[in-house]
Amino acid sequence: xxKCHFSCDRTLRWLLPLTAVTLLAACASAPPPxxxxxxxxxxxxxxxxxxxxxxxxxxxxNLPGPLxxxxxxxxxxxxxxxxxxxxxxxxxxxxxxxxxxxxxxDNVGTAEFNRGLSGKRAKAVAVxxxxxxxxxxxxxxxxxxxxxxxxxxxxxxxxxxNRRVAVIVPFE
Length: 172
Prior knowledge:
Blueprint: H1 6-28, H2 42-49, E1 53-54, E2 59-64, H3 65-68, H4 78-93, E3 99-104, H5 111-131, E4 139-143, H6 156-162, E5 164-169
Parallel strand pairs: 3-4
Antiparallel strand pairs: 1-2, 2-5, 3-5
Helix pairs in contact: 4-5
């Protein structure tokens, strides 16, 4: 058995209570604050508020074909021109300069007809955006035909969802 000298005994008498007080004080202290919430840039919030969805390609807004065009047509309606002017103003206010415009169709008709129609629709939206201040060389246009459907083409509702022009704000 180990014998403790007088000085060892005295040291333990004040060391043990001090250690206990220190440990209790550590337990009673406030927990560290939680990490800060991720900051969402104002541009992202604004795009989401405009109806865009964040995807792997960028921020995408699918404009339904019936909102823009008559069936089988690539001529923008007057209402569509007004809506596109508002969208262009909103995007310019966010200092967005580049867009991708991808036309899509349902599967009614031949693949060749639909590819041509989807390209013409993308071009019509591009012309409207150019008229609202976007630079021609900053607008990528593509017609995808019926190659990238959002829904099944087996129902009228599904075909309606597939007739659209996607406005994409690419990541910078």
